[in-house]
Input
Amino acid sequence: MELPAELKSAVARILDGTPPGALRQAAGALSARYRAEIRDGRLHVADDMAARAYLATRLPATYAAVRAAFAQSAGLLRDFTPRSMLDIGAGPGTAVFAASDCWPALATAVLVEKSPAMRRIGADLAAHAGPLFEWIDSDAETFFPVVPAADLVTAAYLLDEIAPETIGPLAIRLWELTRGLLIIVEPGTAAGWRRILTVRRTLIAAGASIAAPCPHQFDCPLVAPDWCHFARRLARSRLHRQAKDADVPWEDEKYIFLAASRMAPKRISARVLAPPRPSSGLVRLKLCNADGSVSERLVSRREGALFKAARKLDWGDALPAAPDE
Ligand SMILES: C[S@@+](CC[C@H](N)C(=O)[O-])C[C@H]1O[C@@H](n2cnc3c(N)ncnc32)[C@H](O)[C@@H]1O
Output
């Protein structure tokens, strides 16, 4: 996946002239804080250089993950055409850019973000691309001012930065503000999955329909050390490679998400939970099934059309429900 051309050139314009050494150092420090999930009361992105490092190294990855989560959700809610959006822990506006790419009718977006450096760089990005942005300086953990409900509400890569005990109450608050669809995206780590499970339990108890990725509302059938996540490959720009001191022109971003809907989603029979493993005449699939189970399914060439379809499946794809299901 590549960033949309307009966003990519806005990022390049903002980063133009940034001293490579300082960018590399800031990217290293940011990555270390994210990897250790440090919660020391300081913002990860506390100054302009950290915000630039975020733009160079994290925005392309979080964009890829969020855009993929939106596509997986939109495919099951064909009539959903959001006009308004609320994004919490918005960073530079990544999820709003991804949403306007997925749902081009999106007209307004309110972005709640606590870091002044992120808000500044996000406003600069949005001046050159994207729909109408309104930035709000507030804290998702303790309070955010009265904001209007929105068709689409999102929080991407936020929950690992807030106190664990605030995740449930925040999920409820966001659900109350959701007119159509609430999508939460987290890093595809075991800890990210556990946070998503907390949100999932909370929202099901509040009456939400889980649109994606789960094909059911039962308890998650996966048991640690296994966990649910997906991956999206993204192209690394020259600046991205420089900032990370990396040669490989791509990286795989692992992510997990939850889409909770007020509309009835299209039903699916299963979700592919791992990269399909083809061998001669066989495709091995790990599936989360509509009956709440997880299974390994071996599809053989003898199964004709099913085998053909299975060979085209990718990690994260949905298997349609049979007509009578
Ligand atoms: C990892 S970044 C993700 C940004 C963006 N959502 C994305 O996907 O690229 C998390 C963002 O949440 C913001 N944040 C963290 N805690 C917050 C809080 N309590 N209230 C509001 N924003 C917060 C951070 O400043 C940061 O910009």
